[in-house]
Amino acid sequence: MNNIMKPTACKILEVIKESIHEYTFKVAVDMKIEHGQFLQLSIPKIGEAPISVSNFGDGWMDFTIRSVGKVTDEIFRKEAGDTLFLRGAYGKGWPVEQFKDKHMVIITGGTGLAPVKSILNLFYDQPDYVKSVTLIAGFKNEDSIIFKGDLDRWKEKFTTYYTLDKDQKEGWNTGFVTEFVSKVDFEKFGDDYEVVLVGPPPMMKFTGLEAVKCGVPDEKIWVSFERKMSCAVGKCGHCRIDEVYVCLDGPVFNYTQAKYLVD
Ligand SMILES: Cc1cc2nc3c(=O)[nH]c(=O)nc-3n(C[C@H](O)[C@H](O)[C@H](O)COP(=O)(O)OP(=O)(O)OC[C@H]3O[C@@H](n4cnc5c(N)ncnc54)[C@H](O)[C@@H]3O)c2cc1C
Ligand code: FES
Hints:
Blueprint (H helix, E strand, L loop, with lengths): L7 E10 L4 E7 L9 E6 L3 E6 L2 E3 L2 E7 L3 H6 L7 E8 L5 H4 L3 E7 L4 H12 L6 E8 L8 H10 L1 E6 L8 E2 L3 H4 L11 E6 L2 H13 L7 E4 L15 E2 L2 E2 H4 L2 E3 H4 L5
Parallel strand pairs: 8-9, 8-12, 9-10, 10-11, 12-13
Antiparallel strand pairs: 1-2, 1-7, 2-6, 3-4, 3-7, 5-6, 13-16, 14-15
The structure holds flavin-adenine dinucleotide and FE2/S2 (inorganic) cluster.
The site of flavin-adenine dinucleotide has 22 residues, from strand 4, strand 6, helix 1 and helix 3.
């Protein structure tokens, strides 16, 4: 993909139905990608949507998509063997070098788990990469749980708090993710930790505030933002918040900057 604005036709290898509203599309694509970056997925005559890469390997990428409107609904009609158009990859991803040898606390709400799945797999596959992983993952209800097999697998190596907002489920907690932040013994980690937050804007806002209340300094918190985008290359201004272009300067931001961007 030499022209970064030109979409390339890519074959869908597999469609994994994670939940009623969230599917993962495994697409044949060969390019270098950083954890946490996104691509513009498009369907001719319909439109484009920025989607994070939820996992990747040699010659393939996964996109975990929630159907919410024009483009995403149309993508949901696609099957293995069909074509998707992609351009990218764009944006600044997770600072994985900075995460090396740290205790990682990762807090997600709903599909917010998608943009962190590849780093969770990195930490799972290379246990010496970080000192420990605590994963707090929340979902609205049982029907909205994604990556069920991965959630089970991650339990083997990570400290996990899986929770449904209001419903009861065996082996799961009930309550918002914010309620589990104070269960993490941040003091035990000394200075040696980083916190990652991804989810809907209210979840990120209140979880950020809760982490700070638990003594986490702003500079140890990282978030990924979803804003409406068009060009994805800093030209159209659709994603601009004050002087910040989410497509270029993000979508991953340190909380020192992000706390002024949270809606
Ligand atoms: C960097 C980035 C990464 C993203 N990663 C993912 C991902 O991994 N999986 C995923 O399912 N979605 C992701 N999104 C959101 C996704 O891009 C939107 O849901 C999609 O563009 C909606 O397009 P549509 O044509 O289907 O919906 P539309 O018909 O355009 O809109 C449907 C509804 O969604 C709202 N909406 C549209 N775009 C956005 C947006 N960017 N943020 C918030 N609300 C929006 C509209 O206001 C409207 O209410 C990401 C967005 C960004 C910016
Ligand atoms: S999407 Fe066009 S400037 Fe960011």
